[in-house]
Amino acid sequence: MRTIVVSGLVSLALVLSSCKSDPALPETWEKRITGTKSTKEKLKAVEDLRSGKHMGANMVPMLEKRLEDEKKPEVKAVIARVLGEAKQASSVDALVAAVDPAATDTDAKTMNKEIAVALGKIGDPKGAPALVKLLKTKDNYTVIAAIESLGSMKSAESFDALYFIATDDAIEPFITKKAIIALGDMGDPRAAPGLVRAMFKERKGISFYGESSFALYQLGKPAADLLVPVVDGKDKELLDWAAKNNVKDIAVLAKGVQVIGDLHDRRAEKSIVGYLNYKSEFDDLKLIMRMRAADALGRMRSKEGVKPLAALLDEEEPNARKEYVWSLARIGGKDAVTKLVETAGKGPWGAREESMRGVAMLGDDAAVFDKFVAAEQKLFEAECKEDPEFEECKDLPGAVAKHKAKILTYKNRAVAAAECKSDGACWAKHLDSKDEGTRERAAYEIGRSGNAALIEELMKRLPEKNLDTRLAIIQGADWLIDDSKDAMATARKGLPALEKQVADERGKTEFVKVNEDLRRLLTKIQRG
């Protein structure tokens, strides 16, 4: 009997011991964290909890208590990181209490930064006052984390502090950029005046145009309300400010036109059409203004722009002609096809090719490309006589062969156009064509079709790898959403996939040229 009793007591002791060390219990981890004086061991315990399978909401109260009682700022920093990832509103008070506004050593500064990040991840506005206080610390990493968190939190009470940072010329440019981004994320229309001026500022050779123009797009109509008078040349106050700050009128107009084009606001359409005939004693400035106007008119599908754009197609500078052709292709300006065919035989190869591309994007006569092929030998020979040092002229037969091959690829789009005309459903079948140019034209045609039912076909093809085709898909989806509430409703169902794509592709250089448009599309759909 004695043996049985002793055996039972031993078994009970083992069971109790096992319960006390159960890794699913908060007290097990609390004992491990508090059971050592070694900072290194405490850090390891918290990191093991963070990376293991037992971290859950039941661990949060214990970690909040540990954050309160812990003395070492490096341990507090790791606990704050875990609480931020847990995203429980109950943690806000503990995180706010742990802030050290007077931090001077590196570990305390790191702790403040991690607390700022954690408050942003939790997103409870109760944390905003503490984040505003952290904006005044002397550690830039903490300030940046606080700015980003306030932007995602969209706390109205933080507006004044962020606006001050975004508009104060004495602040470090990189921090200014972060504040501008945060104001855009907040979407507060009060930011519009400062953001408009930020588009034209430069400090230490650093421009704020990219961040401020996107932030203005995020604001939407309140930004357009300010920019329409700018584009119309009626905002005397801004023009006076620009003159005093050595900002050229053309910079004000060109950047204003660009944002109005992004917003598809037609109130300034007449003025933008007028800028297609912009005059300057400097050819580069003249072309820059005309090209920005062309881009804006293309984005807003301006029928009024077709005739004056066609009149510019004799331009022999390839980049300028390319912009005019792209604009016509977006608008769907088929009235310009005759002029495009004519200019396909004028100017250097780079310019002529753009006209041929325009024919491919707007025409439906495949036979015309055979004529382009037949004429290419003579045209390029004449070009090389004028400029024999041109690189391609060193192998004239090889260059001509490449040109002809390229021209024949354009023929594919005309063949598809002869089949589909303006039928969006027909064009949808060509979204999976092996020819990337046919996919590109299909996306624009669908975008102009007004067929809301096809938005899903465009949305699921947004990961397209070819940049021109991806841009067309983005633009086509943008137009359908503009034209139809049903298209918007369908597009919103695809938000999780689009948000993931934007996050996954952030920083990938191969998509940087078109993903600004992808981010604008995401913003529009999120805005609803």
Task: Describe the protein.
By secondary structure, this protein is an all-alpha fold. Among the domains are: 20-153, Leucine-rich Repeat Variant (Alpha Horseshoe), CATH 1.25.10; 154-263; 423-528. 70% of the residues lie in helices and 1% in strands. The chain has helices at residues 2-20, 26-34, 39-51, 60-69, 73-86, 91-98, 106-122, 128-134, 140-153, 159-167, 173-186, 192-198, 209-219, 221-231, 236-244, 249-263, 269-274, 283-299, 306-311, 318-331, 337-343, 349-362, 367-386, 396-420, 424-428, 436-449, 455-459, 467-483, 485-493, 495-505, 515-527; strands at residues 202-203, 206-207. A two-stranded antiparallel ribbon has the order 1-2. A hairpin with a 2-residue loop joins strand 1 (202-203) and strand 2 (206-207). Helix 28 packs across helix 29. The protein is elongated, with a radius of gyration of 30 Å. It starts with a helix and ends with a helix. The model is unreliable at 4-19 (pLDDT under 50).
Give a brief rundown of this model.
The protein has 528 residues and is mainly alpha-helical.
- What composes the largest sheet? 2 strands, antiparallel
> What helical percentage do the residues reach?
over 70%
Second rung of CATH, namely the architecture of the domain at 20-153:
Alpha Horseshoe
Which segments are poorly predicted (pLDDT under 50) over 5 or more consecutive residues? Answer: 4-19
Overall 3D form: elongated
Count, helices? 31
Oligomerization state: single chain
CATH class of the domain at 20-153: Mainly Alpha
